[in-house]
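Quick one - inputs below.
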Amino acid sequence: MRIPGKGLVFPLAVLLLWELAARSGYFTSTSLSYPSAILFAGWGLLVDGAMWKATRETFGAALGGMAIGAFFGMIVGIAFGLSRLLASLMRLSTESLRPVPSVALIPLALLIYGYGYRMEIVVVAFACFWPVMIVTEGAVRGIEPRLMEVARALKFPLVARVTKIILPAALPRVFVGLRLAASISLVVAVTVEITTNPIGLGYGLIVAQEGDRADRVFAFLIWIGFLGWLLNALLLRAQRRWFGKFGNWSEAAR
Amino acid sequence: MTAAIVKMPLGHATATADAILAVDDLSYVVGGGARELLILQNISLAVKRREFVSIVGASGCGKTTLLRLMAGLLQPTRGSVRFNGTIVTEPDRQLAVVFQDYGRALLPWRNVADNVSLALEARRVPRAERGAIIDRLLAKVGLADRREAFPLQLSGGMQQRLQIARCLAQEPQILLMDEPFGALDAMTRQNLQDEVARLSAESGTTVIFVTHDLEEAIYLGDRVISMESRPGRISEVVEIDLPRPRHQLRTREDARFLAYRHRLFDLLPTTGH
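Output:
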């Protein structure tokens, strides 16, 4: 039996208990806030525009970095997927770069670009490149060989072959990589802002923490969680919408 | 007995002169060293313009490989394939291949009209002219009312019609058909046989038709080439003297049809059982 919204029962109960516990006066803590205070703090941040500005900054860097990382990830993934020789020639190089944690690039990016969008975008792009590249390589390799033969028989030049056959055939699986990259981009962008870059939601979080405003810290946290959920939900919807109508061709992506 | 037939001269010295497609002493080997395997051995044949040639043989006899060699999708180990006198070294849009697995050869993300359009795009037909050509071809294969449907919404027979329409959009001189109706039910199969016969007669396209179905080969062909297995080689060539247009009942009941069937039957050990 499906009860709509039954997943909300537990979190609402927790919130209610938390609020009651804070109000009852048994627990007084300077480091923990309580739900109504967080709601007010969040509302205040939304109304005075601080939250929106931070959101725009974080999303600008996250999506910009993801777009760049995904673009190059797809190009390299397609090249590797089409040419086993190229993939094996480059394997050592890619495999030795890939384990580098993206956040470990922050000092280097800071040295090169200084504070601001550019350094954040570069770090996000690096983080997003890998999942998209790996998923794309596998997706291209998994394309129905008959389709590749049709492309050969019709004598499409390489660019037309990629845009008309390879990319659309691989897209349902590539899109899974893009969804992964989207969530990674948000995580990395906020991390860069928390550690270094004085913009966006991560910086807002740090400012709130340094000002001892637990209510604001929670408000930012909840907002970031909501945005991450929203981003994934939108991409999932787009995926179903774009690839759902063709039947089971895109089943690999589900 | 069969050895004598294998050595039968095919008279290709005279036939190649007016041949649209000529296979000359072709052999095809896969693997190397100890694992070398001879797939096709000393195949020679010449196909005349507007001719309908059926190639029949048991599964594994290399007939599909022969078709792929003719299409330029594979390169022979020895010998050659000539199309209009020029050696085939790569695929050519004038040689359209109708694959057996139509479901995999279609683009599932493109609708019926756009799948046909793919071949027009390959030919660089201007966008403005494509619509009319697509309409004409879809009408020809009986898919005019399914223009907007996606391949996976079509039945198997319709998917194969669509693949044929796309191949016709290449405006090929030769249609190379690889067991195109092997996966279809009997009724659909007969309809499509008659349609392909009609299409080739109307357009004057040369057809090379690979099948494991002896009756289908005789029913459609001007000539039936039967193949033997391991290694694949031509065992017999039979000119089919049956009136056209052919008829599913009358042609198949014709005494000559039955005579051809008898003559070819013994050469195909695994069909007909």
